[in-house]
Automatic annotation (TrEMBL):
Region (Disordered): 313-343
This protein's name: SWF/SNF helicase family protein
UniProt feature, compositional bias: Basic and acidic residues: 313-327
GO molecular function, one term: helicase activity
SMART domains: HELICc
Entries under InterPro entries matching the protein: Helicase_C-like (IPR001650), P-loop_NTPase (IPR027417), SNF2/RAD54-like_C (IPR049730)
Length: 717
């Protein structure tokens, strides 16, 4: 069946009887934290976890079996999947503002964003500081990429970011004029303010997060010059956007993207239930307000005098309201009884506009149309979003996925994004970058897929790229990976496999675009576990840096898989010369494996970093007690402090901030403890800490436990 992320989490958690740390040895210190990161796109599902927990059939697996004539049932219901169909609508912003995208893109590329890389202006730098400058250069490129994403999404989203940047640099420059220099070492905080829709840091909050440093150690005039240059560019962009908005207000022009969106809703999609996605909260809010305020459009959308009901879900929507809106949007899928369904249908939502905070576990199959208002810079995300409406129980034979593209200017936009991403990748190769800061990387392949999606005109072209993206988006298919082994057993017998000696190796001349200079694959066995490591060859040498290692089993499997018919008969296949550099490679690879084990062993005992609200709550509970304190209060406080100091609560920052602000206003410790206790019960946090398994020293891996099963050299053709 089709599983959402949290559906999968709950099923996997059943196996170890709700022990969150059971999967530590598979590189997952805490299961729920791992799945929360998965839901936000910060992690990828590991093949190892699926191998250990599931017998699985993906959507593609089931479809292949059905095409072969097999009928598949779940709970007595015959499984069927609707056909997904790609559609698109376009707009031409350049018709009114010729060269707009190219002009704006060039201005963004000219930005220095100097406050984000203060170390670059230091008069004397050591090696560590030189590397920090390079890393911050990559993060500056990342910020520019983000601005381009917001530009494509909507002028409102873009203007908000540019205005925030202008205000930040003005405040930074003002303090610099007063003789104060601030170091932007905490780039993560600044990035989060732009990328996390639930983060609402003001300019003053960002300034307060920076440390004051000695100005005499830095080239202040050069820094001032770059900030002045940026302020000129930023104000110029804001003036351009202001003029566009004025033209729209007086009717000289209009938002062509919004107009195209309204047009497709009122023609092709009139009367249908539509789910609309945007990456950005600003854009979602803008769409919602624009649709509701256009009375002429609403009248044109009316059926039997009933205008469509429109609503939205963003990071600002409280959890209970999200649940209620999901039910109203999909009453058939979520109503528990006929009475509840009828009640929900009386206030049914027809068009739901949302960001990706709408989690994958939602049943929204009442809808048959998904609209991506802005470019999905990782097209696989399009498939993941489609899973919200493509679920078991849908009544649709066909589901439509609409994508929006600019008719002109896309090449300029994508061209600069590609250059920025190449710059980030080059710096990453030299000094290494923190993937948790970089977030979702826009790969060259993703950009190529965007071009293909826009240019796909025929049904055959659309089906081809859709199938390719669906296969990529699928979780690792265990059937596909086990099939070659089962075929070998059938031909040669299991005994033949058991007789293969440890350490067997081969050489294959095979071109892999991602590692075009070659690589080495190493398969290890450690007690009952198996580890696949793939090291690329860089500048003629196998790179054994841990940041270069590839462990994705699906990816490695696709590189390894081959057929006997791909090679000459064994008697005609000349043996490859033994490469004794394997010994040096193996020594370092084993050390790397031990390093990974040590990280896994210690990761479960690392305490989470507390944000400002949690620090204040923790301090208040430790330092003060109410006059009428009793045993119930003490026990609740003990539980709360344990959660605060052991569980990563970042996803609840907004809720905890509100709880703290409520306490700061009322000064009632009993109320604070009661509210926190109720919140943690509702979020199931106590279950986590009560069932937490402690690390068992007997499971420590020693170097002698590591066995090399096999290895394979990959060399260019």
């Amino acid at each position: 069946m089709l599983l959402g992320i949290y559906d999968l989490y709950h099923q996997i958690l059943l196996l170890p009887r709700s022990t969150e740390t059971y999967y530590l040895k598979y590189g997952i210190p805490h299961l729920k934290a791992y799945f929360k990161a998965l839901a936000k796109g910060e992690e990828e599902i590991t093949a190892e976890l699926l191998f250990q927990t599931m017998v699985r059939r993906s959507r593609q697996d089931v479809i292949k079996r059905q095409l072969a004539g097999e009928e598949i049932y779940i709970a007595g219901q015959k499984i069927r999947f609707p056909k997904r169909k790609l559609q698109q609508f376009t707009y031409n912003f350049e018709a009114s503002f010729q060269g707009f995208y190219a002009g704006i893109a060039n201005q963004i590329d000219e930005l220095h964003l100097a406050p984000y890389n203060i170390k670059g202006f230091k008069k004397q730098k050591n090696k560590q500081e030189e590397d920090e400058v390079k890393r911050n250069d990559a993060l500056v490129a990342l910020m520019k990429s983000l601005y381009l994403k917001r530009l494509e999404s909507s002028l409102i989203a873009f203007e908000g970011s540019i205005r925030n940047q202008r205000n930040f640099q003005e405040r930074f420059f003002s303090l610099l004029q007063e003789g104060k220099l601030l170091d932007s070492h905490n780039f993560r905080k600044i990035l989060t303010a732009e990328t996390d829709e639930e983060e609402s840091s003001s300019v003053e909050d960002l300034i307060d997060s920076l440390n004051e440093i000695e100005p005499q150690d830095y080239h202040i005039k050069k820094l001032q010059s770059q900030i002045k240059s940026d302020l000129g560019i930023l104000n110029g962009i804001l003036n351009t956007l202001l003029q566009i908005r004025k033209d729209v207000e007086i009717g000289m022009d209009y938002d062509r993207k919004l107009t195209a969106f309204k047009q497709v809703l009122s023609t092709e999609l009139k009367g249908q239930k539509v789910l609309v996605f945007s990456y950005f909260k600003d854009t979602a809010d803008y769409l919602y307000n624009q649709l509701l305020s256009d009375q002429d459009w609403l009248k044109a959308m009316a059926i039997d005098c009933r205008k469509p009901t429109i609503d939205k879900i963003t990071g600002e929507t409280p959890g209970k309201q999200r649940e209620e809106k999901v039910k109203r949007f999909a009453p058939k899928a979520n109503g528990q009884s006929e009475d509840e369904q009828q009640s929900l249908q009386s206030q049914e939502i027809d068009i739901l506009i949302c960001t990706d905070v709408l989690s994958e576990g939602q049943n929204l199959q009442d809808a048959g149309v998904l609209v991506n208002y802005d470019l999905h810079w990782n097209p696989v995300r399009m498939i993941q979003r489609a899973g919200r409406i493509d679920r078991l129980g849908t009544n649709y034979e066909e589901l439509f996925i609409y994508n929006c593209f600019p008719e002109e200017g896309l090449e300029d936009l994508l061209g600069l994004v590609a250059r920025l991403q190449a710059r980030i990748a080059m710096i990453g190769e030299n000094v290494g970058l923190d993937g948790s800061v970089l977030g979702e990387i826009i790969s060259e392949k993703s950009l190529e897929e965007l071009y293909r999606l826009k240019k796909a005109v025929s049904d055959a072209d659309k089906e081809a790229i859709l199938e390719e993206l669906e296969q990529t988006a699928d979780l690792v298919s265990l059937d596909e990976m086990r099939l070659p082994l089962l075929e070998f057993f059938q031909l040669e017998g299991e005994q033949a496999a058991e007789e293969i000696p440890l350490g067997i190796h081969s050489t294959r001349h095979f071109y892999i675009p991602e590692v075009e200079n070659g690589a080495i694959f190493l398969a290890f066995r450690v007690k009952d576990e198996h580890f696949w490591h793939f090291y690329p060859r860089i500048n003629g040498v196998i790179s054994l840096n841990l940041d270069k290692i590839i462990t994705n089993k699906r990816q490695i499997f696709n590189w390894l898989k081959c057929k006997a018919s791909d090679f000459p008969p064994p008697e005609k296949l000349l043996p490859a010369k033994f490469d004794d550099s394997i010994f040096d490679v193996l020594d370092v690879a084993v050390c790397n494996l031990m390093t990974l084990f040590r990280k896994q062993e210690t990761s479960s005992i690392v305490k989470p970093k507390l944000n400002k609200s949690l620090q204040k709550i923790n301090q208040a509970l430790i330092q003060f007690d109410p006059i009428d304190e009793d045993a119930v209060y003490q026990e609740a406080k003990r539980r709360i402090l344990k959660v605060i100091t052991t569980v990563n609560l970042r996803i609840y920052e907004r809720d905890l901030k509100l709880i703290w602000e409520n306490f700061a206003h009322k000064k009632d410790l009993n109320a604070l403890v009661f509210e926190l206790d109720e919140f943690f019960v509702e979020q199931d946090q106590y279950h986590e800490i009560d069932e937490e398994a402690q690390f068992n020293p007997s499971t420590v891996i020693k170097e002698e436990d590591i066995q090399l099963v096999c290895y394979q050299w990959f060399k260019p053709e």
